[in-house]
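tool_call: predict_structure(chain=1)
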Amino acid sequence: MGQLDGKVALITGGARGMGKAHVRRFVAEGASVVFGDVLEEEGGKLAAELGDAVRYVRMDVTEPADWETAVGTAVEAFGALHVLVNNAGIMRHKTIEEMPVAEFRQVLDVNLLGQWLGIKSVTAALREAGGGSIVNVSSTEGFIGAAGLAAYSASKFGVRGLTKAAARELGQHAIRVNSIHPGGIITSMSMQDDVVQATADRADALIEGLPLRRLGSTREVTGLVVYLASDDSSYCTGSEVLVDGGLVTGSGY
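tool_result:
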């Protein structure tokens, strides 16, 4: 018996990295999953691997029509929608002075507007299902700033406010909205060339400053997402949960 038996979930950015781990874990816990991503080859491979429990849709989270397709796929294929995991995101490492305006807007569009569109797009389906759970993926950069990550940090701070406002609006429909804040996690995003170059010099200091003295894995984030998606967290809404090895507890960052 899985923790998510009978649940139908929509997970964005599900073709690789943390999103891929979420898709696999949700299926293992008994959920049916629609996952979206712009990475069609990777998405198709994962869908073929996991079989009838999943559906892949090509999805740009900044496009309302793609959200409509994803929600419609969940309801048509699996009969309802109970969970949204707003996971899709991008990171660009440039100083404020160096970053073009268009690139700043792109980061906010994907990371913040994309999540706002997700909440807007799934509300009717979750209400029709009798309630549900929305999990917004923010970051430790939603609590603390980092040089070279102004756009990313601005978007992730925004996710915190969006989460709390949505929790206030949607609680009357038994729809819970919570945010998670990973940090120090090994993912494909954190291993981008520009990010690796920018953080390599302080990697040892980062690990030394963590109370747990190690980096985290996607598995450790996914367990939290499953909990927030499940009925075990039925009295949690508007929460912001750090999964960062204690990074934000001190000044070691």
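agent: Residues 191-196 have pLDDT under 50 and may be disordered. Proceeding to next step.
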